[in-house]
Design brief:
With about 450 residues, the protein is of the alpha/beta class. It contains 13 helices and 17 strands. It has helices at about 1-10, 10-20, 35-45, 95-115, 115-125, 135-140, 180-190, 230-240, 265-270, 275-285, 305-320, 410-415, 445-460, and strands at about 50-60, 65-70, 85-90, 125-130, 195-200, 205-210, 220, 225, 260-265, 285-295, 325-330, 340-345, 360-365, 370-375, 380-390, 400, 400-405. Strand 7 and strand 8 (about 225) form a beta hairpin. The protein is globular. It starts with a helix and ends with a helix.
Length: about 450
């Protein structure tokens, strides 16, 4: 009892000084939601300089949707450092992604601690956000059968991958406030961070699927083609060819053959209200869907080999966030501007890509020459052609800033309207002032710190 009291009264820095890297063992098994929370808390407590734990909201049943951010500046965005995310367990009975993302966290942290160059390069150049379970309620009731759907849906019986706004849906009148809590949390998340690249992890097949999942007029050979189709195909192949066997393309007895282990989502089957289309259209974030196991709930004894199959692909895919071009847009006074439209000739997006609150833009592009057009009220339209190299090998996209010039006869009204550039309400992606997982009320990072100290105390006392 005396030891417990003394430990409780010690200041927090005591634990980080005397126990800087408390040991944890991540077993190859399925961890329940409480165990995942405890693992994230422990990792965050042991590595506060490269990790930041926060919640993006709660599930329909009230469970926290925890995210661990990793990077050398994990608590907030740094200009020119791209934001990346992995999301797993959107369907509660598709569980392999939970295991893979916990193992990925473990791998990144231990690699950094051992000064391994691959981990140092990734965490120095990228801020990586990992959401191990988007549907903890579904997981709680999931059936371990390979093919049953029990647990797929959230607590309200809704398929979360059919609940997002859809750019191609007709007559869709669902207000954001009426969407599922988990979907609202992700939508809010996309508004607080300038995510550049993402993947969501599923099960039931072995293939990398890319947008669009739904379709409008841009249909070609049965596929629904995005303006960045070449980039999406490259991203999907990057995963499939770094995977141990996905690129073989025909691994599950009940699935169609997938050439090189990839597919256009719409060409596979039409899906309305999907998360990857929403990320791309409204979030300016290129996301693909990774189907990683024929069995939705693989036997636990297969987990080590499944991790081995996916490890290199998970790491290689993160590195692709450094494709293309990045930079800032400055107005005639040299000030970075938000909501400047940055378009690439030949790539007409449904919602034009715009600069964030730091005046930043990120465009994932394959090597080549591209003509950019930058538009901002009260300023001359700027057109420049850039030669884009392959950035991932250097862990950095080409950096190029655009410097705008004021119109010679800019009116006071035009200058005053610089914050009113959204003429299409459905394309309003103004970022909230707070980022990095900040929420109203007590910050979850503070709560996590308190819980992490409690976890350390329990481990010492027990």
């Amino acid at each position: 009892m005396m030891i417990s009291l003394v430990l409780f009264l010690l200041p927090p820095f005591f634990f980080f000084f005397f126990f800087p890297t408390p040991a944890w063992t991540l077993e190859f098994r399925y961890h329940n939601n409480r165990e995942i929370e405890e693992f994230l808390i422990q990792v965050n407590a042991a590595n506060p300089e490269i990790t930041h734990l926060y919640s993006i909201g709660q599930s329909s049943k009230g469970q926290q949707l925890w995210v661990l951010a990793l990077g050398v500046s994990p608590r907030q965005h740094t200009v020119s450092i791209p934001e990346f995310k992995y999301v797993a367990n959107m369907h509660g009975n598709e569980v392999l992604g939970r295991v893979l993302l916990l193992q990925l966290i473990n791998e990144l942290v231990h690699g950094y601690r051992k000064n391994e160059s691959w981990s140092l390069q990734l965490l120095n150049s990228t801020r990586i956000h990992i959401l191990p379970t988007m549907n903890p309620d579904g997981f709680d009731v999931a059936d371990k059968n390979c093919y049953n759907s029990q647990g797929r849906y959230n607590y309200h019986g809704i398929d979360l991958n059919r609940n997002f706004p859809d750019a191609f849906a007709r007559g869709q009148q669902v207000e954001e406030k009426d969407r599922e809590a988990e979907v609202r949390a992700v939508i809010g998340w996309l508004r607080t961070e300038s995510f550049v690249l993402s993947a969501n992890l599923h099960g039931g097949a072995v293939v990398a699927s890319y947008p669009y999942d739904n379709g409008g007029s841009e249909l070609m050979g049965g596929a629904s083609i995005t303006p960045d189709d070449d980039v999406f195909i490259h991203l999907a192949k990057e995963y499939s060819h770094n995977h141990a066997s996905m690129h073989q393309g025909n691994l599950c007895v009940d699935s169609m053959p997938f050439q090189e282990g990839i597919t256009n989502g719409f060409q596979w089957y039409r899906l309305e209200g999907g998360m990857q289309d929403y990320n791309y259209v409204w979030g300016q974030c290129l996301e693909i869907t990774l189907e990683l196991s024929c069995c939705k709930y693989p036997p636990a004894e297969e987990l080590p080999s499944l991790w081995s199959n996916n490890k290199n692909a998970l790491l290689a895919y993160i590195q692709q966030v450094h494709l293309g071009v990045k930079g800032q847009v400055f107005d005639g006074s040299g000030v970075p501007v938000q909501n400047a439209v940055v378009e690439v000739r030949g790539r007409k997006n449904i919602c034009p890509f715009r600069t964030n609150q730091h005046g930043e833009y990120y465009r994932l592009l394959l090597p080549g020459n591209y003509t950019f057009t930058v538009t901002y009220p009260g300023h001359e339209v700027l057109t420049e052609t850039l030669n884009v190299p392959y950035g991932p090998d250097q862990y950095s996209a080409l950096k190029h800033n655009f410097l705008l010039q004021r119109k010679a006869r800019a009116t006071a009204w035009a200058l005053a309207s610089t914050t009113q550039t959204d003429t299409t309400p459905t394309c309003n992606y103004t970022l909230q002032e707070k980022a990095g997982g900040a929420m109203t009320g007590p910050t979850w990072s503070s709560l996590a710190m308190g819980l992490s100290l409690a976890a350390v105390l329990r481990s010492l006392i027990d």
